[in-house]
Amino acid sequence: MKNWKKISLLTTVILLGLLFSIMYIFNISVSKPSFDIEFSPERVEREVNFEYKENKPKNIIIFIADGMGFSHLSLALQTQQLENTVSVWHQFDVKGWHDARSYYGPLTDSEASATAMATGTSTNFGHIGIDKDQKPLQNILELASHWQYNTGIVTDSYVWDGTPAAFSAHIRNEDDARSILKQIAASEIDLIFGELEDVGEDDVPEESESLDILRKRFLILDKSLEVPANDSFLKPIAAIFKEDEIQDMNSSPNLLTLTETALTYMSSQDKPFVLLLESEEMDAASHENDSKRVLNGLKSIQETLALVLNFSKTNGETLVLFTADHETGGIAAVADFDTYPNLQIKWSTKDHTAAVVPLFAKGPGSGYFSNVHRNWEIGYYLKKLISQDAFLTDEVEN
Ligand SMILES: [Zn+2]
Question: Over the stretch 19-36, which tens digit does the pLDDT of each residue have?
Answer without folding.
Answer: 767 666 655 555 565 677
